[in-house]
Hints:
The protein is mostly helical. The chain has three domains: 39-138 and 184-300, Growth Hormone, Chain: A (Up-down Bundle); 340-447 and 551-663, MFS general substrate transporter like domains (Growth Hormone, Chain: A, Up-down Bundle), CATH 1.20.1250; 449-540, no CATH class. The protein has helices spanning 5-12, 22-65, 67-73, 78-102, 108-127, 129-132, 163-181, 186-200, 203-214, 220-247, 273-288, 302-305, 313-316, 322-330, 334-339, 341-349, 352-373, 375-383, 387-415, 420-439, 467-470, 521-525, 545-564, 567-576, 583-599, 601-611, 633-665, 668-675, and strands spanning 489-491, 496-497, 505-509, 516-520, 534-536, 614-619, 625-631. A five-stranded antiparallel sheet has the order 2-1-5-4-3. Helix 2 (22-65) runs parallel beside helix 10. Belongs to the organo anion transporter (TC 2.A.60) family. Its main location: membrane. Pfam families: Kazal_2, OATP. The chain crosses the membrane at residues 40-59, 80-104, 110-132, 220-250, 270-294, 354-372, 392-412, 424-444, 548-575, 587-610, 639-662. It is found in: Cell membrane.
Amino acid sequence: MEISSKEHTHLFSNNTIVPVDRSSFKSESSASKEKQSCCGGIKIFLGALSFVYFAKALSGSYLKSTITQIERRFDIPSSLVGVIDGSFEIGNLLIIILVSYFGAKLHRPRIIGAGCLIMSAGTFLIAMPQFFMGRYRYERFPSTINSTVSLSPCLQDKSQTPLSALEKSQAKINAGCEKEAGSSMWIYVLLGNLLRGIGETPIQPLGITYIDDYAVEENAALYIGCVQTVAIIGPIFGFLLGSLCAKLYVDIGFVDLDSVTISPKDVQWVGAWWLGYLIAGVISVLAGIPFWFLPKHLPKPESRKDSSSSSEHSKFIIEENKDQRTSYWQQAKLAEMAKDFLPSLKNLFGNPVYILYLCASIIQFNSLIGMVTYKPKYIEQQYGQTSSKTNFVIGLINIPAVAFGIFSGGLIMKKFGIGVLGAAKLSLGSSFFGYLLLLSLFAMGCENSDVAGLTVSYHGTKMMTDYEEALFSECNSGCSCSQNDWDPICGENGVTYVSACLAGCQASNGSGKSTVFFNCSCVGTFESSQSSSAVVGPCQKGNECPKMFLYFLVISVITSYTLSVGGTPGYILLLRCIKPHLKSFALGIYTLAVRVLAGIPAPVYFGVAIDTTCLKWGSKRCGGRGACRLYDSSALRYVYLGLTLVLGTVSIFFSVAVLWVLRKRSSPQDETLSANGERGACGTKSRKDNFVNSDQLIQSTYWPEKETRL
């Protein structure tokens, strides 16, 4: 606000002896108030954006934590779960280009607010199938259910089973088939996740560029680092919420929990997966409210008003006509905006630094997205942990390491005044050492559990034949068993049997979780067996497995931190090598490419690869293959970690190419001066004959204070 001449006259009427430089006073007062207004506005936006990042990260991470729950609840394979997970990226794909390009010219905060409402609607839709599906049914032999009919697990003669019981059982199965045949409720989960993706689209490209436009130059990287760090708190709460819900039975509030005969350790256990989505939906609604009250524009800092001293990217990218650039931002007609679309796209893809970094990011995100999506499943299957404990460990130990790594990256950039070339080096170094650490995880796996007919024979030797044929043996040949059932029991010999029938058990005592089976002929024939009894549920993994799990956690935390350090430098590298008016568009294209070429396919082909390691598939009530019940631990380890490392190695080669291009354009003098904090290392050679398209490359001219003060 300016101070009028009348106000000055009134203010100094009684002190005319003291000379006052009114113009200087007015200028300083105006600058001071504007600075306060600018700082206050950007900090309010920073807080609101951080909360939105928290909300979207919470719902996204909660989805990751419920992958195995959804797989079991809807009885679908990992590959289909991967499609559901990838539908979020498909939602981004539908509108990302339009939002990032046209959104930058419209009211960015309100667009973000509208996105939050759409995101919450999708989150609520994911939870809806729980209220329209029937109660969850799991495979259990009738004697383990509170039943008045006592049945022998090994049905040597079907006539020993009361006819009324068989008829009732068959009638229930037929009724279930009729209900399942007319519903594929997992489609609602897919559509809800698709809607979440649409709502999340404007948050990153519009939010980050809004900060970069109106924040003070030296604070931009720190603000971006803070937003990303706060966003990591979302996954912490998301996985902890997943841990809590996984402990609760899926139909809690709808059934008598005393009648539930499975425990969270059982592979058929499904937690209250739907409850967390209701909570996440409410948080998303609350996160979007502040954006409806934020302005379209904020006052720009004094340091950015003069284009000759504005942000670093405007200094090492060749200037265009300033009048044209000013009019570019003032255009209000959508037709004129659309006219510049193709030239802008050509400009971006003509920038080799942008293209190489884009390729490196796409491949690395393939690696990271696949790894993160199936990490809960990997821990559950490899180390025999429950879903609740797995989510708790990831949320409380792994995610904070990622947050600390991202924040450390931004802090290092600011502390040492690292320029674009330094950011490329830091990003490359973090990836290299992170994937190097990941190599050691190959040695930290558990052996397969001893499961008769699948991983070991009924006599205790390792399996070499096809498992379907090996499920039957002489010890259970007199029983009428189905090879499709999965109702594991643990024999006194420490071996797991697929079902009490396949274990040859002749009698049982007790009901529910306390059922004990006796006279199990297959348990008695095992080499190390001393009795023929068994209890409900699979046997625990080997004694070495808990120790291996501890080693896995330590290396996993260090790896997560190391890989995350390169996050903020990567963002700065992306922003600083793009023309100012193309920042939103460049981030939108970047996000689009990552979504389409990494976010969508990675969960699918990782899921397909993981499905190949399955040893025992479940069966649906009406026939057909259901969810996997048992995986080959060794094969799972090599497939999961191997895919992650191969993709990560390829991305490192592209990162090396980015560094090589930047070095080629940076003179040795620039590099030396940059190390002393006197000059940026992202300068290019000044000779125009080194450029094919000079407007697309980094400018070489030395500018005062060219270094990035991050």
